[in-house]
User: Fold this.
Amino acid sequence: MTTAWKFKPALPARRGDRLSGKVALVTGTGAGIGRGIALLFAQQGAHVVGCDIDAASAQATVDAARAQGDAIDSVHPLDLTQPAQVRRLVEHTVQRCGGLDVLVNAAAFGAFQWLEAMDYERDWRRTLTGEADIVFLACQAAWPHLKVRGGSVINFASANAHMALPLSPALAHCAGKGAVLAMSRQLAMEGAPHGIRVNSISPALVVTEATSRPLADIPGFEEQVLSKFMVKRLGQPQDIAWAALFLASDESSWVTASEVNIDAGATAW
Ligand SMILES: NC(=O)c1ccc[n+]([C@@H]2O[C@H](COP(=O)([O-])OP(=O)(O)OC[C@H]3O[C@@H](n4cnc5c(N)ncnc54)[C@H](O)[C@@H]3O)[C@@H](O)[C@H]2O)c1
Assistant:
């Protein structure tokens, strides 16, 4: 007997006012989860500023917002590993929108390589820069502005901060996301006196530009991933965007230093 009917698909984005009046800076809006969050936040009334190192894909998100009847700002190309560029992005957002309420650190770069094949600079250092430094730099630049009226920071850790997945050469990624998880708790403690909440979301495998290649190229990878899931379907950006919406809104005003596992149950056993 099949049980597939029980696994509902991701809820499509829909219009509402849950972020009405809020200014949200979302990084990595050129793809996957960042794009999904930017489009949902705009539909829910936020003034969204996006950014990405890839100008064409960031522009595609601006166009997708326009097609759904929303306007989002976007700064692209922009390299979030460059401190001066990050500071300019935050200043641009505050000047254009009159403040900052929400920072979503969705952008990341990770190199996947087995230990013995890992090049120190090209793979290991670049991943820690692209996963941990990228969060530090954006938080540091945004912090003085988030302090003005309180705010919400949403960081992305990963199920890989908790578990190793067979067939996935994720060593540097595990280190980077473990760092983000630990940083988020510390930042929550530092932000609390200023009304800044900091939480992290830890997804398991979500179908995005980043994951399409291993899903296509590694034999048995999708089956391996699904074998860990209680809900037997892969994640979609909307699965993550709905959780981000809760954390960005005042509905979560008593939630900080939390990790929200959006992982089909993968890390529970
Ligand atoms: N997709 C998953 O299965 C999964 C699972 C766990 C955690 N995550 C995390 O969720 C977040 C979003 O993941 P995704 O799958 O949508 O990623 P993705 O690779 O599809 O998109 C990331 C975006 O960030 C941009 N980016 C990368 N480096 C940048 C830089 N230096 N400056 C500016 N932009 C840059 C990329 O161009 C891309 O558009 C990431 O932090 C990722 O590690 C994803």
Q: What stands out?
A: Residues 19-206+236-263 form a domain with the Rossmann fold fold (CATH 3.40.50.720). The first strand starts at residue 23 and ends at 27. The chain is about 45% helix and 15% strand. The mean pLDDT is 97.
